[in-house]
Write a structure and sequence with these properties.
mainly beta; single chain; about 140 residues
Length: about 140
């Protein structure tokens, strides 16, 4: 479970697990998966590297004021260069590859979707990504 946060009315708890967004009804304990298709390269509800390191945005999902919807980021890192980092203190451990958007190279592709807490289809927010390539916070 990553980044658990209560709804403004405390009726639900949202979090990310296995790269997808979930909610739990606090009263009943019933869990609902809100997104599908999260992978190592495509995440739902997590902030990407540029948002975290350059813009100070660490959240990848946001509660609506009425607690009925969640806006969330879909981050596609398939086009981002992968670098491998070794731990010199533990040379016996296999180096770890990770997506790192170096200057002048491709960033992750980020979309913003809105999904009902009750479940249902995501509505994707449209904006001019060429003119505004980053999703601030």
């Amino acid at each position: 479970m990553i980044d658990p946060r209560l709804a403004p009315d405390a009726s639900h708890l949202a979090y990310v697990r296995d790269q997808d967004l979930y909610v739990v009804d606090v009263a009943s304990g019933r869990e609902r998966r809100l997104t599908q298709g999260g992978t190592e390269a495509i995440t739902h509800g997590l902030a990407e590297f540029v948002a975290q390191e350059e813009m100070g945005r660490f959240e990848g999902y946001f509660w609506s004021p009425d607690s009925r919807h969640l806006a969330y980021t879909e981050v596609d890192q398939r086009g981002v260069e992968r670098l491998t980092i070794a731990d010199p203190a533990h040379p016996e451990v296999k180096p770890t590859p990770f997506a790192y958007p170096r200057a002048g190279r491709a960033n992750a592709v980020v979309r913003l979707g809105i999904v009902p807490v009750a479940g249902g289809r995501t509505v994707w927010v449209r904006w001019d990504a060429q003119r505004y390539p980053y999703l601030g916070g």
